[in-house]
Protein 1
Amino acid sequence: MTRIPHESSGEPNPLRALTLDRLRLRTSMKWRTYPDDVLPLWVAEMDVPLAEPVVRAVGDALALGDTGYAAGTGYAEALAAFAAKRWGWHGLAVERTAIVPDVMLGVVEMLRLVTGPGDPVVVNPPVYPPFFPFVEHLDRRIAEAPLGADGRLDLDVLEAAYRRAVAGGGRAAHLLCSPHNPTGTVHTAGELAAVAALADRYGVRVVADEIHAPLTAGGVDFVPYLSVPGADSGLSLMSASKAWNLAGLKAALAVAGPAAEADLALLPEEVGDGPSHVGVIAHTAALREGSAWLDALLGGLDDNRRLLAALLADELPGVVHRPGEATYLAWLDCRALDLGDDPARVFLERGRVALSPGPQFGTGGAGHVRLNLATSPEILTEGVRRMASALR
Ligand SMILES: Cc1ncc(COP(=O)(O)O)c(C=O)c1O
């Protein structure tokens, strides 16, 4: 694929702004799960300072004591404008949106609307590990339709999973990860239209987790699921949380296609009390005014993807790696290194670098690790050096 570099926004690369000493002052999960001699390249938090418009909006809210409950449609309007400008998608109707506490709780609520207890939810492993416990905690059943060896949706496998899922007579859903975590695959318009056609044929409801949508590599276009023909009955979850590093400022949006409007209307009102008002303010500011910062980040992530490929070729030539088309995660196939099903354990114990263990991602995850490359080039370089040291 031809990669066109991201346009320079004139903003400095936020991945180069923070030193390791400064990052270690953070108290979040990424920095407090392991002892200080471990370099954390695991959970999806970025090593960046926040975009200035977000800091300003949250600071203004705190100064004003504007810390009550969320109200209005500002977040949805900001997302609709962002989607139109960024992805050329003009179909995000504000009246078909609802604010939800975060993407995973939004996923749960959407699945509750379109399936019943014991019903199957198709997922495409290897996939974001919390999909499994969240679906099971909701008393739905996981049905796997693994990605192909190329890391893309396998439509034959998907059709077979849909057929099995509806055979029992229940209401089936497909929890689609788009872009896909951990492979970074960006589903094409053709693939998504084929998913929509299959879902329509089998009566499967698609719930698309599109949290990584703004984080595409240079030259790659994200396609919103609800923008493809035949996807009218779909539901999508979107959020500024991954792209602007706002996971601690809880808020996300559920978006319904035209034929799912009646379902979304049944969302209990109390779900809308879950998001933080300050979170909504932060997400709205990011979408409205955070594009220059995002472009600088995307340029830095492109650089880091290239750097990672070069470092792996030099230091860990046995690792097989296809650079992702989106997200800031790299999915590394370590099977040739002979480190067993869970190479992350070896890298942690012998190299003192924390990666996400592949087996947690379901079928296809054994022998793999996921590396978070949203950090400085220096820390990324040190991370790969530590991985290589674990093999000596
Ligand atoms: C695919 C995917 N969905 C959801 C989430 C979590 O989102 P939230 O914190 O809004 O629930 C993540 C976090 O990394 C993710 O990668």
Note: The radius of gyration is 20 Å.
Protein 2
Amino acid sequence: MKSPYAVQVFDLLHRPGEMRERELDITVPEGFGNAVIGVPTGAQLHIDLRMESLHDGILVSAEVDGEAVGECVRCLIEMRIPLEVELQELFAYSQDEAFEYEVQDDTIDLEPVVRDAVVLSLPFQPVCQEDCLGLCPQCGVRLLDNPGHEHEAPVDPRWAALAGLAGETGESAEDVDGAENNGATEEKR
Ligand SMILES: [Zn+2]
Ligand SMILES: [Zn+2]
């Protein structure tokens, strides 16, 4: 099956000065992103594409619009951020190592270019809002949803551990009161 990222460019090949504009609507066949946020499989990407024929190859300029889905690294709530990524790459005719991307037959494959540009634009530490307070370290509720949330008698687990430790190493004086039981038996006559 043809990749939705593949674009035919036969009408541009070796015609320096020619230019085409196209719009692509892609249903992402395989999701991509970093560990915490990305474009999921099945998401929609809209690509405004401009292709210019040069002597060396075809210069592609594109704007990619879509949505990334992930979770806030502090409070773990699902979050969606709009994507608006611009890129520009040359797809070369020659298989010279100097060029990262090549025109293959009469086609250019935008997938690696789009993926790289989008992944680069993604935040590594996405937060639902700048002042997200995260989760309560004691009970795990989301603090933004529970303003003023606090616990009656907060017991710091470190204090609890220390208290336990002190009890264990407390001197346990050995009882040496060997109460000798002299069976004081009174002999009665
Ligand atoms: Zn958050
Ligand atoms: Zn709590």
Note: The helical segments are 111-121, 157-169.
